[in-house]
């Protein structure tokens, strides 16, 4: 960043030099990079340009909401998509399967921010059932404990549904094809030949094996969720990390942008690591001696 | 060969529907100046935020501009971004994939590691970060979607190369002294292109979706240039009073992306060699 564009034209050359030295901009580029790296490894992300708070503080106050929404939606994705995929594979080509396939296609093709708007219009504006912004109502302090929980649920239900939507489509499809592959295996045929009940064949043998690759999906879907948060947090005015990233981008608050990018990268890598490790744990064929 | 693919493609009614829609859309985009009832930037403050009626089939936006006309012109933005971004992605992906597949060894490992690194990025984050530095515009997002979308193509091309490079026609080409470059480009690549077409179709679907998300956030096509995404921005801002601003552009995006995805599926099924044993 050139200091010249940040200051008024009348600033003296001395003032410019002082500012450059303050931000360390007078040092050569690789030195600047190393200093930045040094600080970032210690998680010192500097201070925000926008309000002077440390970036770490800003991120810390935003992360819980984002994590809450993403974890809950991951949970729903799992308990809904896996059974759908499995049943769809077992009843291949039936009406159920065709409906599911159609739904999956819609899920891939849907602009989620549009679905968000439509849901807001239907549930928020027309029917008035759900609030369309924020995470709590203004009069929350006047509510009972139970009332607060309901209030939070009402605010979060649409974001969670949207966050889960694309993931649902992807995971149903994936679990369906994984299940289809497993069903064709010889050991399933053996189980049937042994005379086992069909339900035992499916649930005790097929599903377990089909689940193996799905565990990796858990870790690999983290980047997608992080990216998705940006959009629906902005739409629903939810004060989470995604929305912070968006507003920092708009206000060119570079320290915050960099801080969130690093956190996002760390979370992505963590997700990948979890995926790898859990695959090794779950698959009995892979054992490190 | 092409005849067989076309016949198989034709048997899939959903894919054919998708193809028809894509062709209609291409026509709409091409003939936009002749089809659109109003100019997309024609401001009319007497008719702000009016619901759909006889004069304005899709209503007007907050500046009185006709939504239908803006959507017709907006299709150009979506298709431009789709095709150019995918064009960039295919070029990069094909080159990297063919080099990795052809030479193998350490070059292959390096390229594939690079692919893994790129795949690990949360793409939207990356795009937003780049846009924070560069001025947002339609060209920026075209390039950046292209630069972040080549990985699938690279993998596919590499896989094709791995199987194709041991074939007889490659041996013969080498025997007559053809250079590596020539073998790659004149001989192997034409045979490796089938899965690339499939990936390209899906890529266009994805690019249109990404472009509309970015334009929606204000980081893509800049107003007053129309894009389905940025009409939706007005939709969000006026959500309590103008449902038509939200419904129609999003529906257009959904139908378009769905059509490309359906065509991609149809292409994939038509080109899948494993299904050939069912041919009469």
Question: What features would you describe in this structure?
Answer:
The complex is a heterodimer of chains A (289) and B (280). Chain A is mainly alpha-helical and 289 residues long. Chain A has one domain: MetI-like fold (Orthogonal Bundle), CATH 1.10.3720. In chain A, 75% of the residues lie in helices and 0% in strands. Chain A contains twelve helices and no strands. The model of chain A has no long low-confidence stretch (mean pLDDT 79). Chain B has 280 residues and is mostly helical. Chain B has one domain: MetI-like fold. Chain B contains 13 helices and no strands. In chain B, helix 4 (67-103) runs antiparallel to helix 5 (105-120) and helix 4 (67-103) crosses helix 11. The longest helix of chain B has 37 residues, at 67-103. The A-B interface holds A 105-106, 108-111, 113-115, 117-118, 120-121, 125, 132, 223-224, 226-228, 230-231, 234-235, 245-246, 248-250, 252, 254, 257, 260-261, 264-265, 268-269, 272 and B 120-125, 128-129, 131-132, 205, 209, 212-213, 216-219, 232, 235-236, 239-240, 243, 246-247, 249-251, 253-254, 257-258, 261-262, 265.
- Helix % of chain B is over 70%
Beta fraction of the residues of chain A? under 5%
Q: Regions of chain B with pLDDT < 50 over 5+ consecutive residues?
A: none
Computed structural class of chain A:
mainly alpha
**Could you give a short account of the major beta sheet of chain B?**
none
Structural class of chain B, by secondary structure, is mainly alpha
**Would you state the CATH class of chain A?**
Mainly Alpha
Q: In terms of quaternary structure, what is this?
A: heterodimer
Number of strands of chain A: 0
Radius of gyration of chain A equals 25 Å
C-alpha termini separation of chain A: 52 Å
What fold name stands as the CATH topology of chain A? MetI-like fold
What pair of chains forms the biggest interface? Answer: A-B, 39 and 36 residues
Low-confidence stretches of chain A: none
Number of domain units of chain A: 1
H and E order of chain A: HHHHHHHHHHHH
Query: Helix count of chain A, per DSSP?
Result: 12
In CATH terms, the superfamily of chain B is: MetI-like
Counting structural domains of chain B, the number is 1
Gyration radius from CA atoms of chain B, angstroms: 22 Å
CATH 2nd-level architecture of chain A? Orthogonal Bundle
């Amino acid at each position: 960043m050139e200091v010249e564009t940040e200051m008024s034209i009348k600033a003296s050359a001395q003032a410019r030099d002082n500012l450059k030295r303050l931000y360390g901009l007078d040092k050569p580029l690789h030195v600047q990079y190393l200093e930045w790296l040094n600080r970032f490894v210690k998680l010192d992300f500097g201070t925000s340009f926008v309000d002077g708070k440390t970036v770490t503080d800003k991120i810390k106050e935003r992360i819980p909401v984002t994590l809450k929404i993403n974890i809950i939606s991951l949970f729903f994705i799992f308990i809904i998509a896996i059974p759908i995929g499995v049943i769809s594979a077992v009843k291949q080509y039936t009406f159920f399967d065709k409906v599911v396939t159609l739904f999956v296609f819609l899920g891939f093709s849907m602009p989620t921010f549009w679905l968000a708007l439509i849901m807001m219009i239907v549930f928020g504006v027309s029917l008035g059932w759900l609030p369309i912004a924020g995470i709590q109502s203004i009069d929350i302090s006047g509510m009972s404990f139970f009332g607060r929980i309901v209030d939070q649920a009402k605010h979060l239900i649409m974001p969670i549904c949207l966050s889960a939507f694309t993931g649902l489509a992807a995971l149903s499809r994936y679990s369906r094809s994984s299940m289809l592959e497993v069903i064709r295996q010889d050991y399933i045929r053996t189980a049937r030949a042994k005379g086992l009940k069909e339900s035992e064949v499916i649930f005790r043998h097929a599903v377990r094996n089909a689940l193996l690759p799905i565990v990796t999906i858990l870790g690999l879907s983290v980047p997608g969720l992080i990216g998705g948060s940006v959009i629906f947090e902005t739409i629903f005015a939810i004060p989470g990390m995604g929305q912070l990233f968006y507003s920092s981008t708009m206000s060119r608050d570079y320290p915050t942008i960099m801080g969130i990018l690093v956190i996002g990268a760390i979370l992505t890598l963590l997700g990948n690591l979890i995926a790898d490790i859990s695959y090794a744990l779950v698959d009995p064929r892979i054992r490190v001696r | 060969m092409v005849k067989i693919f076309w016949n198989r493609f034709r048997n899939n009614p959903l894919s054919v529907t998708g193809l028809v829609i894509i062709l209609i859309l291409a026509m709409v985009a091409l003939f936009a100046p002749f089809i659109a009832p109003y100019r997309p930037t024609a401001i009319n403050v007497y008719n702000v935020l009016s619901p759909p009626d006889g004069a304005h089939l899709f209503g007007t936006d907050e500046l009185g501009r006709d939504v239908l006309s803006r959507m017709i012109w907006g299709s150009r933005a979506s298709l431009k971004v789709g095709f150019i971004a995918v064009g960039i992605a295919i070029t990069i992906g094909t080159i990297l994939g063919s080099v990795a597949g052809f030479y193998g060894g350490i070059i292959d490992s390096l390229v594939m590691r690079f692919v893994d690194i790129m795949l690990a990025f949360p793409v939207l984050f990356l795009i937003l970060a780049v846009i924070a530095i560069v001025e947002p515009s339609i060209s920026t997002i075209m390039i950046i979607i292209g630069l972040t979308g080549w990985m699938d193509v690279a993998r596919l091309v590499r896989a094709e190369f791995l199987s194709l490079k041991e074939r007889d026609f490659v041996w013969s080409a080498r025997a007559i002294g053809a250079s590596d470059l020539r073998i790659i480009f004149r001989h192997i690549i034409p045979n490796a292109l089938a899965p690339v077409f499939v990936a390209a179709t899906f890529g266009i679907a994805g690019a249109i979706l990404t472009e509309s998300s970015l334009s929606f956030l204000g980081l893509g096509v800049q107003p007053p240039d129309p894009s389905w995404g940025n009409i939706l921005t007005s939709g969000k801002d006026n959500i309590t009073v103008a449902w038509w601003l939200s419904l129609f552009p999003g529906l257009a995006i959904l139908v378009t992306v769905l059509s490309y995805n359906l065509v991609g599926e149809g292409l994939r099924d038509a080109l899948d060699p494993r299904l050939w044993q069912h041919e009469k």
